[in-house]
Each structure stands twice: as structure tokens, then as C-alpha cells.
Amino acid sequence: MAKVLVTGSAGFIGGYLVQELLGRGHEVVGIDNFSKYGPVTHSYDDHPRFRFVEGDARDVDLLTTLLDGCDHLVAGAAMIGGISYFHAYAYDLLATNERIMAATCDAAIRAHREGSLAKVTYLSSSMVFESTEHWPSKEGDERLIPPPLSSYGFQKLAVEYYARAAWEQYQLPYTIVRPFNCVGVGEGRALGQVEVLSGNVKLAMSHVVPDLVQKIVKGQDPLHILGEGGQVRHYTYGGDLARGIATAVEHPAAHNDDFNLSTAESTSVLELAELIWRKIKGPDVPFRHVSDEPFQYDVQKRVPDVTKSREVLGFAATTSLDEMLDEVIPWVTRAVEEGRL
User: Fold this and answer.
1) In this protein, which residues make up the domain named NAD-dependent epimerase/dehydratase (predicted)?
2) Same domain, yes or no, for 228 and 122?
3) Distances (CA, A) of 176 to 101, 200, 335
4) Residue 28: strand pairing partners
């Protein structure tokens, strides 16, 4: 089994990924500075093959030390949030994440040259396809379409250029993975000074699934949604994404390649809202909604081609939206009742 360093291990996807890697028998070192949610705990914190270090992924010397003896690095650390972050922190998303990525690559290049590091798996984003006008988006389209308009999308595209540049100059092997719309449990209210109201409810993360759930649980009626609700997304379970990322880490065919990781199922925001409404309110309460002014970077359609990940990695996201919601709704409901959201 391998030893894997995961940066951003206390994040939303990072938490699922550490659990998956441990379940596969790997030794895992995690680093996070708790900048998103503050200190968090996980069920695996005391696992004998897990070590956590509180620290900043912009610290090249620290990353170099943690990479000693590691076979793989998953570059997941980033300043990241929901759509409100794209506007409230436009500069910070770009500047902070560039510093994280440069430090990560500097440390990884050294660890590959002087140590045992075999490969870096980089977490990119579906937002690299932000400016596309044709769907589904397949691997390679990100180099053919106009660059993303948001600083977040642009920086995620830059992550992919870091990966390829480090290979071209230093022969540091890479895999790029692009998660689509992660859904799961474990998110808290994001730290920061920006408050976003949707009707009479203050949003927790500006991530559509937990925010719709909390608004309905808090009694919002009619339900406020951003825009007309025609935005199309592919809501993918965090556990499925973790399985896909871990497979990409391990699979020899993932060497120097890139993969979309997503469910194949398209769902509009309005369809999602009504499904959550029915699960919470039951069949007899009329579904009522109103449209709020959408954010500038609220991409209307993100639809991935998942053929490559299925054929090369043997990966398919199998958890249905119904199953995800049956897990997320009780979790968010408890968080609301306990005052955490």
C-alpha cells in the first residue's frame, strides 16, 4: 500500500477522500489550516494509518517535510466556496490559490527528484468549462473553448497548466481530476465576513443542496431560488467522487491524463428544489417558489462527458440523487436544530 499526502484534508471532498484512501489500506497524511470552517473532527481522526498536521499549504518547507516517504500527493488544498465566493473573494480566490499551487508544485518537484514521490493528483473543477457553448464537456474541451470568466474558474484552469508544466520541465507525473457538484454531509457554515441573504434566510455555504434544505427546514415559503431555476447541474455524491479520485491516484492508466468525475444524470435547480420540498413537506403541500436575481457567474449549464473515466478508470458515480438527499436532509436538519446553520 502507498503513503499519500492529502492537502486540504479537512475540506468537504478531502474528508471523503481520506476515508476512502484509508479504506483501501493506504497510509494517509493530511494537512489543512481550517480556514474554511474552523476546526473539524472526523471518525477516522484516531486511525492508526492517519496523521493530521495543522498547517498552511503555502508553506513549501512544511510540504517538503510532509512529503518525505510519500508515494503520492493529492493536491486538494484551495480557498473555495459556493457561488457567492466567486464574487465576494474574486481576488483572494486567484491570489491565494496560485500561492498554494506554486508551493505544492515546488515541494512536489523536490520530493519527486530527491525522494519517493511518484505522482501528483490535482483537483481541478468543472468550472474550467465555464465558457463552453456546447455540451457535454469532454476532456480536452478546456483548451478549445474561451477561458473561464470567473477568477475561480480561471485559477482552476491554471491548476491544470501547473500540472502539465511540471511534467514538461521536471517530469513530475500527474493526474488531473475534475469533480462536478459534490453533494454530501460534513459542511458547516463557512467562515468569513460576507453574509448572503436569500429571502429571509442567511445562506450557509451558497452550495445549492444544503442551502435549499435549510431554507425549507426553516419554513421559507415560497422558496427563494437563484434565477429561473433552469440551471443544469450534475449532483455527484462525495463518496463517489472520493472513489473516483482514489482510483485515479492508483490506476496506471491515469498517468499524465485528465478525467471528469461525475454522475451522468442532469438535474435542473428547479427540479432539485421541488424534489427536496416534497421530501421535507410531503406530497400535499403546494410547491411555491420565487426567483431571486442570479449571480453573475451562475453558469447555466454544466454537463460532463463521463465516457473517459468509465472506459479508462472503470469509474461510475452510482449514488442516486434520491439517496444523497436521504442522507443530506437529516444532516442539515440536525445542524439547523443545533444552531450550526
Assistant:
1) 4-261
2) no
3) 13, 40, 34
4) 4, 50
**Angle, vertex CA 205, rays to CA 241 and CA 139, nearest 5:** 35
Q: pLDDT higher for 226 or 216?
A: 216
pTM score of the predicted model:
0.94
Helix (H) or strand (E) holding 268: strand 267-268
Lowest mean pLDDT among 21-30, 72-81, 128-137: 72-81
Contact 125, 116 (CB under 8 A): no
| One domain for residues 204 and 144 | no
Sign for the CA dihedral angle at 332, 337, 338, 341 comes to positive
CA distances in angstroms from 111 to 99, 116, 127, 165, 256, listed in the order given: 18, 7, 30, 16, 18
Is there a single domain that holds both residue 10 and residue 73? yes
Is the residue at 29 inside a domain?
Answer: yes
Residues 6+ apart with CB under 8 A from 27: 1, 2, 3, 4, 49, 50
Residues 6+ apart with CB under 8 A from 68: 111, 115
- Determine how many CB atoms are found less than 10 A away from the CB of residue 2: 17
Q: Are 280 and 329 in contact (CB under 8 A)?
A: yes
322: its cell numbers? 434520491
- Percent of the chain at pLDDT exceeding 70: 92
Task: Please tell me whether residues 223 and 270 are part of one structural domain.
Answer: yes
Asked if residue 283 lies in contact with residue 254, where contact means CB atoms within 8 angstroms, the answer is no
d(CA 221, CA 224): 8
The span from the CA of 61 to the CA of 67, in Å, is: 10
Minimum mean pLDDT range among 11-15, 98-102, 275-279: 11-15
Averaged confidence pLDDT in the chain: 92
Alpha helices in the chain (DSSP H): 12-23, 60-66, 83-88, 90-114, 151-170, 208-217, 238-250, 269-281, 307-308, 321-337
Instruction: Tally Cβ neighbours within 10 Å of residue 294.
Output: 16
83: its cell numbers: 457561488
pLDDT-derived band at 207 (thresholds 50, 70, 90) equals: confident
